[in-house]
Amino acid sequence: QVQLVESGGGLVQPGGSLRLSCAASGRTFSSYDMAWWRQAPGKEREFVAAISINGDITHYADAVKGRLTISRDNAKNTAYLQMNTLKPEDTAVYYCYAKNIFTSNDYWGQGTQVTVSS
């Protein structure tokens, strides 16, 4: 089993930047595809970005391409989401997601709030 803990959220002005981190427990982090999802008030949870186990493949939602960058450090059991040129519509709770490539077991973090406002 994997436990995911997000951090790095907060309040930022439009055009600003934040870096979210997702720290995973356990010694099999490199067996998990990682992703970030978000949920704005009154809306369904939506996909943001994903990264393969060794970081060579990434996917992004159209709304964040060119502004948000997903990465991972398998030695630190941590995934990241660098968020630049933030917009008010990026305001949401951001969730870390992990899926084991061998068992398909998946896990969610508890979420971290990102608010973009002047």
Tell me about the largest β-sheet. Answer: 7 strands, mixed
Kindly, what is the distance between the CA atoms of the first and last residues, rounded to a whole number of angstroms?
A: 40 Å
Q: What average pLDDT do the residues reach?
A: 96
Radius of gyration: 14 Å
Q: How many helices in DSSP terms? A: 0
Quaternary structure type: single chain
Classify the beta-strand content into a percent band: over 45%
What does the overall shape look like? globular
Tell me the series of helices and strands, N- to C-terminal. EEEEEEEEEEE
Considering DSSP H and I runs of 4 or more, what fraction of the residues is helical?
A: under 10%
Helix/strand-derived class? mainly beta
Low-pLDDT residue intervals, each spanning 5 or more residues: none
Strand tally is 11
Describe this protein's structure.
The chain is built from no helices and eleven strands. By secondary structure, it is mainly beta. The strands form two sheets. Strands 2, 4, 5, 6, 9, 10 and 11 form a seven-stranded mixed sheet that branches. The chain is globular, with a radius of gyration of 14 Å. 30% of the residues are buried. The model has no long low-confidence stretch (mean pLDDT 96).
